[in-house]
Amino acid sequence: MNNPQLNKNGKLQHLLTTEGLPAPILLKILDTAESFVGVTQRDIKKVPLLRGKAIFNLFFEPSTRTRTTFEIAAKRLSADVVNLNIAASSQSKGETMLDTVNNLSAMNADMFIVRHSQSGAAHLIARHVRPEIHVINAGDGRHAHPTQALLDMFTIRRYKKDFHNLRVAIVGDILHSRVARSQIHALTTLGVPEVRVISPKTLLPAKVERLGVHVYHDMEQGLKDVDVVLMLRLQNERMLGARLPSAEEYFKHYGLTQEKLALAKHDAIVMHPGPMNRGIEIDSAVADGKQSVILPQVTFGIAVRMAVMAILAGN
Amino acid sequence: MRILIKDGRVIDPENGMDTVNDVYIVAGKIVAVGDGPDSFQANHVINARGLVVCPGLVDLSVRLREPGLQYKATLESEMKAAAAGGVTSLACPPDTDPPLDEPGLVEMLKDRARSLNQAHVYPIGALTQGLKGEQLTEMAELHDAGCVAFSQSDKLLLGSRVMMQAMQYASTFNFRVWLRPEDDGIADSGVAHDGEVATRLGLPAVPVCAETIALSKIILIAKGTGAKVHLCRISSAEGVAMVREARQQGLPITCDVAVNHIHLSEMDISFFDSNCHLIPPLRGISDRDALRSGLADGTIDAVCSDHAPVDEDAKLVPFGESEAGATSIELLLSLVLKWAEEKNIPLAVAVAKVTSEPAKILGIEAGDLSVGAGADLCIFDPEQHWRVEASTLRSQGKNTPFLGMELQGKVKYTLANGIIVYED
């Protein structure tokens, strides 16, 4: 099976998922991001690497935060950025996703950053664009959100140095989470020996253990002696059906509090992809506490996205 | 018209024949197999040396997309595809637009099909009006108009009480009810098997219990009402086991499987291949293996193509938004032969799965080469390889997971009512 993300020289052509990417490619992204962290902290936060390149932020699903971080990252690389909020424009006029992409390709796009509510949308676009165009998946349905996972890996490496002796727990709605899937693939590829998922059975997909994780339903057991706690956002609409009875009961069993966090290693770090639901999946005392690295994640996110764009543009 | 088919390997499972023989056809009927009538003068001789001569294929599920859905395919295009696939009798499900729930629509479809003079079309009537699962259709009227059975097509949508009453009513007239076992509530908006591939790709999933819950309901109601039931397109190992047990109890239940499902599994979805978006979903490898074995041991009577031409645009969208279905009628024979070869099944048994067995389920006179029968035949080269290509498929739909693949076994001639409707 050809990996649709790699070109025939084995280099990264698109970033669609962390699944199936060799560890050296993931590490190269993290290493490159290290060099951009310096840029983002300078007074003049700009390098000319992507000068003259046209990058289209193609958001078929609303997002503020992810789109903004991609926009900032592209601008710091001196690219020209166009933001398209397609949910509100051509799709409502009946244009298909591929027609939209073809039209923008005709405007000489160099890179598409795609977010879509359907799993596989970025793969479909990558299969249909001209070979010189690169596609970055900024989140497709429940499938993947590779730049989020990469910035998480970057953050983990910053604080924990080495992946090879870590215990990492991912807590929350694994079933609907593209972030969790991308985190799991990245963590296992980078050599984390023990990845746990902690979730009620209604929020776990079938055969999730095949992804290489240990399943826990009891958060207190699951958090025991972990080095990293990756919290997931719980969408409000999950409360409407029969998956969960109430936000209160969810928080009681799966919300991260200081008491539960105390079961992890004393120097464990807490992460969250944002936006947070305080009091539902995470207590404010933890979110704002000394073990939280949630804001550094956001900062690193820009460097990681710069790294991905710079590497793709160079391949 | 007098046709002589010479020196072919004649496989007629219903009459237990598998031998090199000649077939004589006069005025649309088979008049002799073996020794011809005295002083027979053929207008047309088909040299079938090295070829297999068998009954025309009988396909239990072919979407012709008429009435109402002609942008996907037309009767003309799909009847040509049927001929190229060696199919001479086909059942079409009622999920047209509007659904086949009124005698007038059924008669119109039959007339349109008859005027094309190709395969025989057997409409399956809607079990409930508009397929909504509420009010029964006029089954007896629909039967008089030409419906051979009644079904809910792909949506079961039947509450338990309506299902029971529909089966009671149908059995009053000895009609067979065709049901695809899937509990809508559980299947919900799932698009793939609830297994590791859906988990990896983040696709909404259909658990196996969607099939087994519906199956147990159908089997228990069949037991209670004595209704004849045909189970369409079973998909799971657990489902096969339940059907096996029900048949061992002597219930009047028959069962088919779609040809794609005896070869493919969830793994073939790979990176979101929307051509593998099928109903029911392709399940795990062990499920596929159970379907293959169930077909071999007779738990599953027949293989259908479940032909569903889809226009290209409807597949060029993300997997979950793509329209389900595959164009399959032209691949049916080759794929059944592939199953037989891989499972070491005699050719005559494989042929029965697409001729005599489905004909019995339909209750029609077809699927055999008896003297006096209508001359519906398929003549194929069991050795010839061919490549599945969009440009050569006659169906308007080009959507198949087998696109670009090489298959063995090629239809050379198809005869319907003694007329050569396809020649390779």
Would you give an account of this structure?
The complex is a heterodimer of chains A (315) and B (424). With 315 residues, chain A is α/β, with parallel strands linked by helices. Chain A folds into 2 domains: 23-144 and 298-314, Rossmann fold, CATH 3.40.50.1370; 146-294, Rossmann fold, CATH 3.40.50.1370. Chain A is 37% helix and 14% strand. Chain A is built from 11 helices and 9 strands. Chain A has helices at residues 23-41, 65-76, 97-105, 121-128, 146-160, 178-189, 219-222, 247-254, 258-261, 284-287, 294-314; strands at 54-59, 80-85, 111-116, 134-140, 167-171, 194-198, 214-216, 228-231, 269-271. In chain A, the strands form 2 sheets. Chain A has a 5-stranded parallel beta sheet with strand order 7-6-5-8-9. The radius of gyration of chain A is 19 Å and the shape is globular. Chain A starts with 22 loop residues before the first helix and ends with a helix. Chain B has 424 residues and is α/β, with parallel strands linked by helices. Chain B has 13 helices and 18 strands. In chain B, the strands form 3 sheets. In chain B, strands 1, 2, 3, 4, 5, 16, 17 and 18 form an 8-stranded mixed beta sheet that branches. Chain B is globular. The relative contact order of chain B is 0.17. Classes of the chains: A alpha/beta (315), B alpha/beta (424). Chain A binds chain B through residues 1, 4, 19, 96-98, 116, 118-121, 123-124, 128, 140-144, 178, 181, 205-208, 210-211, and chain B through 194-196, 198-205, 207, 270-272, 313, 316-321.
What's this model, at a glance?
The complex is a heterodimer of chains A (about 325) and B (about 425). Chain A is α/β, with parallel strands linked by helices.
List keywords for this structure.
heterodimer; A: 315 residues; alpha/beta; Rossmann fold; 2 domains; 5-stranded parallel β-sheet; 4-stranded parallel β-sheet; 11 helices; 37% helix; globular; B: 424 residues; TIM Barrel; 8-stranded mixed β-sheet; 8-stranded parallel β-sheet; 18 strands; 30% helix
